[in-house]
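Question (not urgent): is this output format expected?
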Amino acid sequence: MTDSVVEKIKDTFESILRDRKKLIKILSVLLILVAAAVLKIIDTSKADITIESAETAETAQETDPEEEVYEDTQTICVDIGGAVVNPGVYQVTKDTRLYEVIDMAGGLKEDADMDSVNRASFVEDCQKIIIPVKGSSENSGTDVSSVSSSPGITAEGLVNINTATLDELKTLNGIGDVIAERIIEYRSSNAFKSKEDVMSVNGIGKAVYEKIKDHIIC
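Got this back:
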């Protein structure tokens, strides 16, 4: 009985070996099965890694939440003159110190008198800063940091559109509460570099400008 089974198996293998087409088919099937098994293992591993990564990211987000940081970048305008290279109106942030404004103005002139000036002081919106000249009696002994907003109307009666208050702006012909507020709002982020710039304010056209151009400075 055993010999008979062995003989049948032997005959079967000999038959398969003689028939190459059957052998190729069998080998192809075996390769397909092996490849399918390998791909299944790889897909399972990728799924495990993806799940683990998602869980890790979620845990990290819970334990270390991202904090939003808001920077206060409010701008102000200051008018610096006297013994600086480039006097004028400059836009700075509200935490700016005097020495930084001096640098923006090109630095000090050789005859600048800094004995009475506190360069470490903070500047203020609409502040008029005069750097005194050596030997000059003007502003002598005055700490610049104590000079706050200067009047927006000059000795000649001209209105400074960069520093004038609401009421001072309203002294101009054709400028009421609404337009004056718009001027102040505009200059808070865009300092007037020339008188003509005031026409950039909504409500001030050429006709209004012609009425006020001889009565304003910047």
